[in-house]
Design goal:
The protein is α/β, with parallel strands linked by helices. The protein is built from 14 helices and 16 strands. The strands form four sheets. The chain has a seven-stranded mixed β-sheet with strand order 4-12-11-10-7-5-6, sandwiched between helices. A four-stranded mixed β-sheet has the order 1-2-3-15. A hairpin with a 5-residue loop joins strand 8 and strand 9.
């Protein structure tokens, strides 16, 4: 491939014969290739785009800000957009979350939360607390600190020599229920192990970190809010922090502005990114409580939180985020999404009896299912049929990007009910086509060597 560009999460050799798709424009729910071919973005461009591509209100806000201030360091300085954004975030989250620390990415937000929690305990005369508990199949990013609490071997196994070993608890993923087991019985069984781990280690534990309601990179594995209620009670009982990683699920993805609302609890740290700027610019935020903040408030500079990034609180990103929050407010986005959520629910329900589909599931604007063999057994992990599904969908003008054999859709909120129906119908067709293929080991995105219908 004659390019200096090294792509993320990509085996570059695949691009020798199948170059990446070039996108030159975006509008609403669609991306466009150079020849004008539209692609319906059913995954919101890696889960970040909320209101559609090239939204006029967000565009206008960024253009206006460019003419005023494009960047200033946030150490010792401030500016109106970032002050306004911090205040807006405090207004739309639980009242105990009163402080906002900005960073540049989801992984960085996790690093911030982990470091804040550890430093809090150190400065609260409990320096023995150095350990974190995370969940099996959880994903929290790909920097070293975030990888240490991530349980996706594809991302972490090669870097084990660099990673601190923390504690891992069983996942609440409902697809792992045993036959005949109820949701509550399964959750209670998994939670009991977590409770035992904390009972045995609480004096050295800083925090428990989870992805609320949906474990994204594991394949959109879902669980109900009751588990989060139990977590809050458990953390209070043993006096450890609770970190919510809402980087993927925040800003309306689960049907409410934040997943925590469905459990009616408040974490000690709330990590936000992806949809924070509606997919326009890199930015993340860690929200926390005055109790945490006061542990750092001192005349001693070494007790401050000495974490920085050159572009922290960038004015352009802040204006994009403010414009996105304005859209939520003025266009009643969450209320309008309820009809889209109902459409997705109805259409996904039609897949329940399909022989090649199991574990059909949905949380808000996130839908998913597992692609299996006709006998109901899963395909081997090395089988590449998930990529076949992506290729079939692209041949029909839809961007899907399965995780292994987990097929999911996270569309932007400007999508229509008819477009949701079309996405799910194409996903079904893709499953049926991929199940018939005898040679699944092919390259990522293109379809030159396949007999696509």
């Amino acid at each position: 491939m004659n390019s200096a560009l090294w792509h993320p999460c990509t085996q570059m050799q695949n691009h020798e014969n199948s170059p990446p798709l070039e996108v030159v424009r975006g509008q609403g729910a669609y991306l466009y290739k150079a020849d004008g071919t539209p692609i319906l973005d059913a995954i919101s461009s890696w889960w970040v785009n909320l209101h559609g591509h090239s939204h006029p209100k967000i565009n206008a806000a960024i253009i206006d800000q460019v003419g005023q201030l494009e960047q200033v360091m946030l150490a010792g300085f401030t500016h109106p957009p970032i002050e306004q954004l911090a205040q807006r975030l405090v207004e739309i989250t639980p009242e105990k979350l009163t402080r906002c620390f900005f960073a540049d990415s989801g992984s960085a937000a996790i690093e911030v939360a982990l470091k804040m929690s550890l430093q809090y305990w150190h400065q609260s005369h409990q320096p023995q607390r150095k350990t974190f508990i995370s969940l099996q199949n959880g994903y929290h990013g790909e920097t070293l600190g975030s990888l240490a609490v991530t349980d996706i071997p594809l991302f972490s196994s090669q870097y084990q020599p660099l990673l601190i070993q923390h504690l891992r608890a069983p996942t609440p993923d409902l697809t792992l229920k045993e036959a005949g087991e109820t949701d509550l019985d399964f959750l209670a069984r998994q939670f009991a192990t977590l409770e035992k781990i904390l009972e045995e280690n609480y004096t050295t534990v800083c925090a428990i970190i989870v992805e609320p309601l949906v474990q994204g990179a594991a394949g959109m594995k879902m669980y109900p809010p009751i588990y989060l209620k139990w977590l809050r009670t458990l953390c209070d009982r043993f006096n450890v922090h609770l970190i919510f990683d809402e980087i993927a699920v925040g800003f309306g993805r689960t049907g409410t502005m934040f997943a925590l609302e469905q459990a009616e609890i408040t974490p000690d740290f709330l990590c936000l990114s992806k949809g924070l700027t509606a997919g326009y610019l890199p930015m993340s935020c860690v929200m926390t409580t005055d109790n945490v903040y006061q542990a750092f408030y001192s005349t001693d500079v070494t007790r401050g939180f000495l974490h920085s990034h050159s572009f922290t609180g960038n004015p352009l990103a802040a204006r994009a985020a403010l414009a996105s929050l304005d859209i939520f407010r003025h266009e009643n986005t969450l209320q309008k999404n309820q009809q889209l959520i109902m459409t997705m629910q109805n259409e996904l329900a039609k897949l329940n009896d399909h022989p090649n589909i199991r574990h059909v599931r949905q949380t808000g604007m996130i839908g998913a299912f597992e692609f299996v063999q006709a006998n109901g057994q899963p395909y081997p992990a090395h089988d590449a049929r998930g990529r076949l599904i992506a290729q079939f969908a692209m041949s029909k003008g839809i961007l899907l990007r399965p995780i292994g054999h987990q097929v999911y859709m996270i569309p932007p909120y400007c999508i229509t009910s008819d477009e949701i129906k079309h996405i799910i119908d194409v996903a079904r067709q893709a499953v049926e086509w991929a199940a018939q293929q005898s040679t699944p080991s092919i390259s990522n995105h293109h379809t030159e060597n396949l007999s696509l219908p």
